[in-house]
Write a structure and sequence with these properties.
By secondary structure, this protein is mainly α. It has a single domain, classed as Ferritin (Up-down Bundle). It is built from six helices and no strands. It is elongated.
Length: 168
């Protein structure tokens, strides 16, 4: 009987596998993981290739805030007993990153980076609003609700920055 209790307690302590995660949660998790990595990776490029001080300052804040968001995301996944996804970009974001890194001229980098950040934050705000209102997994719903105001602030910042950076 004691060994059965031990086995059962170990079973309930294990992370949930993808088959046990509601589809809306799986979609949210996958999109958050990719978006957060994309924000950090492209912002590291901006620190290296960006020209305007405002762009570099924004990039540094994105790295700081999205690193924190990534830690909060992993904590929410652990609380929900869901195994975290791989830390990699999907095909679409890999192509966007490569385009920004390889094909953007030094002179046009700031504009391309800000445009990518604007698009990424518009998508993130929509994703987090929806999940904070309708998400089926409580720990991730709380994470979305907590993170949404930060993303909305980032969106306002990048919209303002977009007005300052010359269009290419």
């Amino acid at each position: 009987m004691r060994s059965l209790l031990i086995v059962l307690s170990l079973f309930f302590a294990l992370p949930v596998f993808a088959d046990d995660v509601p589809p809306a949660t799986k979609t949210f998790i996958d999109k958050v993981a990719v978006a957060n990595k994309f924000e950090i990776d492209t912002s590291q490029l901006a620190l290296k290739y960006g020209q305007a001080a405002d762009v570099k300052s924004f990039a540094q804040q994105m790295i700081t805030d999205h690193t924190t968001a990534g830690q909060d995301f992993r904590a929410a996944l652990a609380e929900a007993k869901i195994e975290p996804p791989s830390d990699s970009l999907d095909v679409t974001h890999t192509a966007k990153y490569a385009k920004l890194r390889v094909f953007t001229t030094e002179k046009g980098f700031d504009t391309a980076y800000v445009d990518e950040q604007l698009s990424a934050h518009q998508e993130a705000v929509t994703l987090f609003k929806d999940y904070s209102a309708n998400g089926p997994t409580p720990a991730l719903k709380a994470f979305a609700t907590k993170t949404l105001p930060v993303l909305e602030h980032h969106l306002m910042m990048v919209e303002s920055l977009r007005k300052q950076v010359p269009k290419s």
